[in-house]
Fold this protein.
Amino acid sequence: MSDDDLGLDLEVERYELFAGPAYNFNFNRRQFLKAFSGGIALIVPMSNLVARTLQQEQGESGGGRGNQRIPNDIGAWIHIDESGTVSAFTGKVELGQNIRTSLTQAVAEELHVPLSVVRVVMADTDLTPFDMGTFGSLTTPRMAPQLRKAAAAARETLIALAAEQWKVEPGTVRIENARFVNHDASKSLTLAEVAKGQKLVKTIPPDVAITPVNNWTVAGTSAPKVNGRDFVTGKHQYTSDMKREGMLYGRIVRPSALDAKLVSSDTKAAQAIPGVIVVRDGDFIGIAAPDQQTAMRAEKAIAVHWQAPGQPGNDQLFDYLKKNAAGNRVSGRPVGSVEDGMKAADQQLSQKYTIAYIAHAPLEPRAAVAEWTDGKLTVWTGTQRPFGVRSELAEAFHIPEEKVRVIVPDTGSGYGGKHTGECAIEAARLARASGKPVKLVWTREEEFQWAYFRPAGVIEVTTGVKNDGTVIAWEFHNYNSGASAIQTKYDFPNQNIQFHNTKSPLRQGSYRGLAATANHFAREVHMDELAELVKMDSVAFRLKNIKDERLKAVLEAAAGKFGWDRKKTEGRGRGIACGFEKGSYIATAAEVSIDAKTGRVKLERVVASFECGAIVNKMHLHNQVEGAVVQAIGGALFENIQFSNGQVLNGKFSRYRLPRFSDMPVIEIVLLDRKDLSSAGAGETPIVGLAPAVGNAIFDLTGTRIRSLPLAPDGVVSHG
Amino acid sequence: MAKVTDLNVNGKKLRVDVDPQTPLLYVLRDHLNLTGTKYGCGESKCGACSVLVEGVVMRSCVTPVQRVSGKQITTIEGMEKDGKLHPLQEAFLKADALQCGYCTSGMIITAASLLNKNPKPSREEIVKHMDANICRCGTYPRIVNAIEIAAGTRKEVAE
């Protein structure tokens, strides 16, 4: 199935780090496979990934193991118990994006029950249907309709049962506020009285009607965060908060660098500490102890010698990426003829843009609690792919997947950085050896060094433009970042757009927005450079090349709210960018100032205009767009992984600068509600417009064009 | 080498038998089962571990437990009184000032220390006081709104 067949506007290829086995333990032979080697980025063609996801959602058997079919019986998704509580089951994960609330709204809507009656059970491989993972901004466009269908089918089934009890036509029975009522409300039954706690085994009819957007009374409202109270009182238990009976605390002895090999080690002193268990398995050295302090003491008592090969550092990075792309896979189909376009152009421009590695830095680091009971492994962990991690665990321990259960509590964020199960596997290994449950929480330093980064990239753009502002030729080459949003919604007649696969010195994978940030940065800065060449206003130049109504709408909304037509403020520069990704549209305008003495850049104001079809929860959407803008500030201005010889040099918060309260500009969000379009996801797209808007604003103020992210590594703009 | 330390946590007098150099964070979380206070960085740079010691914010990840012996410690669990949320807790909910919620305990505690010394802070004062706390989900504008609501310097929640 090609992307065109699926009717999807998706890139051909994307770096989704589907971890191959991080560990391959064998308790008899000392065997160890390590997938931490720098440069191993497992590429899963996005078309396969999405095709499999959709196949499963349509009930066809996907590739792989038998239990990956998406169930079609209502009871797999919806259950009503004897107390009248409606449970909705989904394999999706709550990381702060508030899908727990939006999915509650969807189910409550279809069943005509108050929100408080619905409880969404999430991300438990024993209880919830198979799910590929929480990524791709797919929950809103795919999971919400799935739960709606199941809930609607449940409603119709139960109405039929109530009608049977009353010996009336089903059409005369309705649900009002969690009660079944007959035509004149003279009779009523509770949900529990009709459902009687039975499993709903009927199949979900393919044509079951779900509530159209115009009839929404629950979705479309700003329902508050479902379990918000637990978070403001400290009651919510993240994985890192959990305790199990007899639980030990784990620590891992880490290699000195990526690709390091263990030369020698002495664990005798650690093993002598009372209560400490040291686990050795090839290069893996782990500790389990009765408390954290003892575990840390044991770790310090282990003498290890590692040997790591020389590896590139920041200075060699971009040359390394280009050099290692030669002869590798290239993806992309040309449109028209760039050669002809260049001949017809009045002016030409060729520029190179570079993108640094940045870290996700989720405030809750990786954590896992692992417990073996009668040969079955249960792991609680903060991952975005519970079923994927279940497979990883089954593979690591050579046991069938049925013997593994992964549960994901609402987690302290991920931003795409928690797809893989390293911590789960490590905890499980320690639990296996000690015979007790083990909790392993990575340190902040480990989270920087041993997870994965947003890919670095080199992007080369060569274009031809006519003096009337028409971009007549567009050649765009992305090395390493990825192909997300590499295709453009601009109306360029001649295009040659290619993504080049290459080797990466550091482990890399998905980060909120994937390569859409890099590709929008290069594209939207380049568009500004072309506008400059033909002496056109940034907004007018873009509009000249846009036919897409939705892109036009967000651009005009952002420019309008910003006051783009107003006289410029003295001492301020302004910039604008627009784009599209994952079914939604964004336009971002930014205003900057620069301290005349120090050169420090200050982001003064940001206007973001966003459209994702019909809005499900305006308050939470506003929160998401705003949060994405704030997160984007880091990658735009100062976030930058420093590395050398396989070591991350700035892997702690005292060295890696993250956006803080004082970095906040005035942020204004304009949300366009398109009730006539189906709801797309919103977790990623809003992040992509900020960096180019700020880059363009800096140029507007200083005349200095910066073509690299981060734009101001030390907070200062160097006037080149 | 363990030693018994007297603690006063959320109005309760307790004794813990731990190495006196153990950071307060681990004593709270692992020994007293008060897991509302979080680990974020271990070097007092993110504020997730914030607690109040006699009304003033301290970073429990770098505070040896013996240093706070006998002093009145308030954690997030102590903000609620008889099932009634503290105004800051109410305000965070009203302003939707969280996403993943991991920074929230530290934010509320740090905000409480601000309001303890400055009941009607300006926006600039709020930003300055809170700047040492990180929210990676980026809810800073909403947190500022929440603090203003709790302080009574702001009525409307601008969406």
Chain A touches chain B through 59 residues (CB under 8 Å).
